[in-house]
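Appendix B. Raw example, untouched.
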Amino acid sequence: MANDSLIRRVFSISPHMEMFLRRIYWKNVKWLSKKAKSKKSMEVNSTPINFNKIEDFLSSNGVREGALIVVHSAYGPFKGRGKTPSQIIEALLELIGDTGTLAMPAMAAFKNAVKAEDYLNEASPDAVYEYNVIKSPIKTGVLPLILHKCARSIRSRHPINSMVAMGPLAEAIMRDNLKGASPLACGKNSSWKHCVDNGAVIVGLGTDLTHSLTMIHVAEDVLDERWPVDDWYANKTFIIKDGDYEEKRTLRERSPHWGALHYGERTLCKDLINAGILKTTTINGITVEVLNSKDLIEFLMQKNSSGYPYFWLKK
């Protein structure tokens, strides 16, 4: 944790520092990934968490009855500290009540996904990825997995940046996410854009929210061909299954090198905090963060004429 904090501080010195270090990382990603796994701490924090304090922080920052919340989470920091994944889901649902909607990223783990060291390589044009709305494993954590198992939850059919939600708005925000000839994962008909339109509050529990902030892609994808960076998207082919429904679609996805080599993550985090948009705290060693989706997209739209929050872009 201390090393992670130090890395974030170094990256936040300037976007140029982050771009430079990102290139070093990806040139050595195979070795660094192995080193990180070998040094992974087995220490477990068993100190009970005062979840009431977490709830108070969320409540004071927009998570209240009737709210639509998009929760990014990591259960590891919570494990063995007083609440099971199901109990955390129940606590969040209690906060927003019967009129509120809980959504979470539910990205699929594809069987033929590339290894970390091959992430930046050109994908094979013949590759086909199977996405089963009901059965495809969720790689974004145990909490969305538990939510997906709830009988009243709905998972989006879009295979890129998939979402799962439960509540009065769940069906509406998922309904049109495959509408159009080449719908983008966070484009005008996406579940993510519908969340913005409905004033979603974005929550981070036990994770660095800026690192996993899928919602930033709404600012890119709604512009589509008007996004100021050329060759932003690459085609990817999927077979999408959902019960009796099956369809083969070729969709556009942001090319991986933009996020890996050009995303000014720590600069964005610093800028969002300085603008008063990102609220962050630590409770019993757990990082808890909140921001309003409309404020986020408005902020990005004011700055993205040059491609912000991406840097070292060719003009």
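End of appendix B.
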